[in-house]
Write a structure and sequence with these properties.
Helices cover about 40% and strands about 10% of the residues. The protein contains 21 helices and eleven strands. The strands form five sheets. The protein has a three-stranded antiparallel sheet, with no helix packed on it. Strands 1-3 form a two-stranded antiparallel sheet. A two-stranded antiparallel sheet has the order 2-8. Helix 2 runs antiparallel to helix 5, helix 5 runs antiparallel to helix 6 and helix 6 runs parallel beside helix 9. The chain is globular, with a radius of gyration of 24 Å.
């Protein structure tokens, strides 16, 4: 569904002093008193508006700078302070996440509160709308509790007075409630398994089930993840798209792998993230860039990590014989973009390599790498793009299934062949040492392989932060210096790799974000998370 940007008129609060009933609708404008009854499309318009708060390209990509995948040189309103551990109860980004998610919840609750007043809806259409709204609301609560833990929970639109006196609900209760909503939607088949061309992008039956799997994954409910993903794999009709790089091209939107994506449209609803991630020679101001840690995580074509014996890795030719997804994801020296006119431009990221080279200009990459994934060569002037960011795709389902099996000690050759092998073959691996099941590998080694496969396959798609939080590995990967390209300089490097930022992750504090102090000032019932 490429949205028509339908927005509801603001509800006007008013008071008069007369003998006329205060609930009498005014004659000159539409109000909440009669809007739902008078407009047969009121529920649809309000539902469409709810989708605009689902997620954004900016949010997805900048979440990577809170991880060992990327760094942003943009402070304050972005994610730099979370990435380096300096954020506080007054952090602007933390506040924006809190506010935007509760705005989305309030909008969903308002429609659910009033949908029975839209008498023109058939029972089937009403159920579909309810299914979409409850899944959208569950997504918002998922994004909140995975960051803040216990959060205020409500299934109705709150008054100002109510919002200033609502306490935090235990995380376990929030999870129980949103899973119950999703189970209701799934079990009763409120949602179709697909939509026609005019409604593509809406929440489907399978998107609701995939969100359930994501929630169970975060909670390490391995049996639940296994069962939920198994149903999607067996019955969903999805398959891996033929081209990994092609997944992220506007020409291939709504392909066989997409389960849920955010709707943009050239001209009418666009983002400008290309400006934030591409080289200055293409008109970018690169303030978000991949880190060396991400580059190093990609295995060799033989399936071995670059530090493993027999990998064949050569530090002087670091991009040779590597996982093909590295080339499709990260822009490094010698890699290229395809321009709107079909020509190819090769990028030089090296120090002294021209305007795009590391350290050459304030516009250039702060790490010596740029982003290739989500490059859109159909962009308009000033790098505006209508390309959809993908929230959930089939490869994620396969990886969740493989991880659940591995954690239960049940990742055997059959499971491997139906998950990791398929993903690697699609990526371009051909050697048996990379695609065949590693017979004899321990449970711990298989978990390590699946986790790294997840990082490589889903890099820069907004999944890494939740992964290192739920694995409790953030304290290991987010402490100390993060690095950019190899410069071989003596000063400002470690083993020749440029120091980018010194980070701190306090395991006693940072696995949960602070409740914004501005919210606690308004609502005295809000407690604070530990050590904040």
């Amino acid at each position: 569904m490429k949205y028509k940007n339908i927005f509801l008129a603001a509800i006007i609060a008013f008071g008069v002093s007369s003998c006329i009933d205060l609930d009498t609708p005014p004659y000159d404008r539409e109000t909440d008193l009669d809007y739902w009854e008078k407009d047969p499309e009121s529920a649809l318009k309000a539902l469409n508006n709810c989708y605009t708060h689902l997620a954004s390209m900016d949010e997805m990509l900048y979440s990577e700078a809170m991880t060992d995948n990327a760094y942003t040189k943009q402070p304050n309103d972005y994610t730099q302070n979370i990435g380096n551990g300096s954020f506080s109860t007054a952090d602007n980004y933390v506040k924006s996440v809190w506010n935007s998610r509760y705005t989305g919840i309030r909008m969903c609750n308002e429609v659910l509160d009033n949908i029975d007043r839209v008498t023109s809806l058939s029972p089937e259409l009403k159920n579909r709308y309810v299914g979409e709204l409850k899944t959208l609301r569950a997504y918002h609560y998922y994004e909140l509790y995975t960051r803040f833990g216990a959060v205020p929970y409500s299934t109705k639109k709150l008054s100002i007075a109510e919002s200033m006196n609502i306490p935090r609900t235990d995380k376990e209760v929030v999870i129980q409630n949103i899973l119950a909503d999703l189970d209701e939607v799934i079990a009763n088949n409120y949602l179709p398994v697909s939509y026609d061309a005019d409604n593509r992008g809406r929440i489907t039956h399978w998107a609701a089930m995939a969100l359930k799997a994501k929630i169970l994954l975060f909670e390490s409910d391995w049996n639940g993840v296994e069962q939920t993903c198994s149903t999607i794999i067996s019955n969903g009709g999805f398959r891996l798209f033929d081209s990994y790089s092609g997944l992220f091209e506007i020409a291939n939107e709504y392909n066989s792998e997409i389960i849920l994506d955010v709707q943009y449209r050239p001209v009418s609803r666009e983002h400008q993230m290309l400006y934030h991630i591409v080289p200055p020679t293409l008109g970018g101001y690169c303030q978000l860039a991949p880190l060396q840690s991400l580059v190093d995580s990609y295995v060799m074509l033989n399936g071995k990590g670059i530090k493993e014996a027999g990998s064949g890795y050569n530090e002087d030719e670091p991009y040779k014989e590597r996982d093909p997804r590295l080339k499709a994801t990260v822009m490094y020296t010698g890699n290229s973009y395809i321009l709107p006119d079909g020509t190819e431009t090769v990028i030089n990221c090296e120090q002294g390599g021209g305007r795009d080279g590391y350290g050459s200009d304030s516009d250039c990459s702060p790490t010596g790498y740029y982003t290739k994934k989500y490059w859109d060569n159909t962009y308009r002037a000033s790098l505006y793009s209508g390309l959809n960011p993908i929230l959930i795709r089939y490869a994620d389902i396969l990886l969740m299934y493989a991880e659940a099996k591995a954690e239960q000690g049940k990742l055997d050759e059959s499971v491997w062949n139906g998950t990791i092998k398929l993903i690697r073959q699609r990526a371009g691996f051909t050697l048996a040492s990379a695609v065949d099941f590693p017979a004899g590998a321990s449970k711990e080694k298989l978990i390590e392989i699946v986790r790294n496969e997840r990082r490589a396959e889903l890099a820069l798609e907004g999944h890494r932060y939740k992964d290192i939080i739920r694995w409790k590995t953030a304290e290991n990967v987010m402490n100390g210096w993060c690095h950019g390209i190899r410069t071989n300089e003596v000063v400002g490097t470690d083993n020749g790799y440029a120091r980018v930022e010194k980070r701190t992750f306090d395991a006693n504090k940072h696995y949960l974000w602070p409740i914004p102090q501005t919210e606690r000032d308004l609502n005295k019932e809000l407690t604070q998370n530990p050590n904040w």
